[in-house]
């Protein structure tokens, strides 16, 4: 009996129906609603330049757009924070034990100390 | 002849619902991240289309920010999954149920 | 009129002695000489002097009914509640009696309490002082509110004094019983007081707007009062019965008499002062005080007469078989007060007051005599352990004999004149127009026989025959402070009768009936006309339908004297001789019934212990179970639902995601529907 | 401005006591509490108010300041005193000072927090009795619950958590019902402010509009019943009384002195101010059920007290019984009825305070409150026993003590009331309470105080120190003073109660 990898699709498909239902509802909404005509961009407009200008709020773009200067700064900070966060999460303690998961009022729940040998890395 | 708007909306809805289905049916935490990426990109589709629909470049610039944020989100997501793996010997979401009633 | 300005002093003097004794009891118990007795004696003696002065003033025609202190000012038509002083022949007479007996009892207490070196004397004298003050306050009360206030205070003092030896188990429970039974009576009295205020707007005793006068006017139609939907006379009878409830409780009449024999747990001077002469008289005095109101109500008068007659007979029978000297006297007190109620009920207002006076003297004498016997016998009260004390205690014996003769009603002594006049009034009014009084008269007459019997049984057992125990052979001597009061009261017991010798006056005509004249005149002041015995006579005749038949007082007097002598002779026959033995076995089953006081105590105790107590326990379990139960179930519902809802937090992220998605779809659907999708 | 300073001073004192180290907290709190006491006596001395504050009387020490407008409704800081609220203010300050002194020996851990909470509660209580704007009053009304919850919950007896939570939730739900009812009335009434005199004038005067589909009369009845129940829980009235015994038994004795002495009066004070002043016709229409509830409270409370074994539960249930008299007096709508009810509030506050304090002193010495566990206390603690006996007799309505004055006025007032049908029957039945009260108090006293000395919890019992008996003696003096001269308070009460009377009768 060959043991080919078989996909673990099984009993837990039921929740998928919720996604299908959501799709149905949204499609119903979209189909029954009418939209105006698309204004589109002027043919000769330099879209990428206007995006660049809109990004930093520099006037004189072919196509108008709001200024995202503050958003740009914020997203920079966010990315930096994300980077530091991920490093922190991945870092191991000096004594080799990982970040322990504390739960239920500070009681050490899991996390391998050096003491228990059988836990593999 | 310009493509009617409902098609784009249907496309992004489909993408979004596939992402949701991915989250709901799978048990692997990594796949959650992938599905969430899919859902975010569905939103981007809408942004870009409606940017063109309204003739205003804000939609596009905003989708860039969405992508950036998605990246940050994945970074943290991966970190958390790493810790999850270390603590629960696997990334199966249905086993890590200590945070319950 | 100067005396009336000092009248408030009568009440305030004992009050100050109370404060002095309380202050001493709290700070330095032994600084007061004789444990607080001296201030007490001084205060009561002072009250006696002022009372004498007031009596002289009243003799000279002085009357007063003046407000002394405003308790609560009336606004609009709401009445003004005041403390007012009413001094007229009745209250002057009662003032004399109370202050005299109180002084003598204070002196006696020196011998009874101090010489027996009791502890806690300041507390005792404080209680005695407060009692005297409240009793005197009750006597001079000018309206029903003030009367009720001092009525209750007197009840409190009797509670404190009965429970004086609180370290043993007996006195506190006797004190509790005394207060509770009288409180039960006072409940009806309080309802009556509230009724009088609501009906008449004021509760004054004297003056044109006093409530008896307004009641009389209302009956004749001149005044209109609120009668709460009843006829005027019926509503007044209801009020009369309510106030009678308080009187029956305090004067230990038939249903509410069970507390008096137990009250003998208190020290004997207390029994003498409170449970013989004064407090128990408060009820009878109250009816005499508002007799103008009772004279309008024939039904209530008949009820009073019947209760009085029955109690006289009922208590006399129980007195026959008692072993302790104080128990005999206790039942005799209940019986004698039955006579007074009979007198009041039968329209003999003067007779009842006369018996009230004489009884106060000879009963106080008998109790104090018993006290000195108890001192001699080292607090052993059982008559069957005494005997032959005659030789060793001559003064006590002579005075005790005088008191007994007065109690039995033998001719020259005070008891005969007053009891005979009560019976005479009952007979005369009974034949006159209301035959029901004859039944009461009959019971009263039979009671004379028993009274004679138990009185002389008591005298023979204690003083005659051979001493039956070692203690009786050489009793412990008693000092002057015991003998002096006995002598004073002995003299009074013999001579008090001459005040009002009705048969002699009818025969010879020369000794005037002082008491009749004393209570008859209003001293020229029309405001007090409503409080004279003449006025009461008219009211009785007009409203109560009481009329008297012309009958000489000689024959009834001789009949009652004969019965008394018959009783005494019977006792002599059975218990004379050196070694009398108990004859009560011959009574057989009747003895046990009499000995257990017709099981009155038992059924009242049964009423409280196995009816009221279990009822309150069931109410408590009901309250805890049902009322508190509903509160707890309501809270447990929320706790239970909280436990169930908690399970939604399964800990699996996917479940939360599913709920999120379903929520979103539902939201979109709702918005769609509301937005007019399918409508 | 005096009332603001009074509240500010007491609040400040609470904060400062919080910082005082534990061993000095008791003394400091006592000294601080003397300030509001003097303040209230000053208020009493210079009281010049006349008539009822809500029915166009002139309010003493009145001061108003705009606070906020809530949806078109003006809400003010509006405080003032009249003949009804001043006695209760004096009662609060007197009882708090004495409770603090009596707490010196009773409380021996976390004293500073204890005394701070007591003083804070005093501030809120003073606020309740002086506020004349509904929202301001409601803020103080709710604020009282917080310190009381902690006082019972932290320093209480074994089941203190249950008792504290039950007390808090029970009263809060009731206040919710009352709040909704009153706001509905205000919205229906043609008035744009929450100030009580204005709302009272509107409600007593012209026709109010319907609300939420209820006709005006139905609205008045529903609001009356909801407010009656809301305040009834606080009073407490019989079906809603079950929180009281638990709260009293578990609370330390100084706290139960305040709980019985003042907090119960908030309920009856509010009933007088809201139900019986603002909706007189509805009250008259519902007279019979209210009187029935009052009479049931009296007899039911008394009978329950007869069945108790714990001294504190006995006194707690008898508070239920005494408050029944107050309700009977209020519904009588006669001068002596309503005036007597207000006086009974003050009198009962003093007497139940005295009873709880003396039971607390005995508990402190014997460490038990069970009637069966001890007997013959008079032998070892003569002064405390003497005062407890005097207090018990005060409770039974012994004349020349405040209890009798209050009860007698209520009986005379309600016996002849015309607004209450069958008034004599209701009064006569309620008066039977004085016999049952005498019954269980005498029974309890006889078992615990008299007879030979015996104590199951073998502690060494000796006379209580002066600092325990001094507050008792002061309270007893106040009770006797009010009993002998009730017009100290009764004069201003009659003046304040005059305008809201109805019907004939005295």
Describe the structure.
The complex is a heterotetramer of chains A (121), B (101), C (679) and D (506). Chain A is mainly α and 121 residues long. Chain A has helices spanning 14-32, 47-56, 69-90, and strands at residues 102-103, 107-108. Chain A is flat and about 65 Å long. Chain A starts with 13 loop residues before the first helix and ends in a 13-residue tail after the last strand. Chain B is elongated. The mean pLDDT of chain B is 90. Chain D has one domain. Helix content of chain D is 72%, strand content 5%. A two-stranded antiparallel ribbon of chain D has the order 1-2. The mean pLDDT of chain D is 90. Chains in contact: A-B, A-C, B-C, C-D.
* Silhouette of chain C: globular
Strand order within the widest beta sheet of chain C:
1-2
Question: What is the subunit organization of this protein?
Answer: heterotetramer
Q: Cα-atom Rg of chain A, whole angstroms? A: 26 Å
Structural class of chain C: mainly alpha
Helix content of chain A: 40-55%
Most extensive protein-chain contact, per-chain counts: C-D, 57 and 65 residues
Biggest sheet overview of chain A: 2 strands, antiparallel
Tell how many strands the DSSP assignment of chain A holds.
2
Distance between the termini of chain A: 32 Å
Helix content of chain C: over 70%
Spatial gap, N to C terminus of chain C: 103 Å
Order of helices and strands of chain A: HHHEE
Relative strand content of chain A: under 5%
Low-pLDDT residue spans of chain A: 111-121
Taken from the alpha-carbon principal axes, the silhouette of chain A is: flat
Strand content of chain C: under 5%
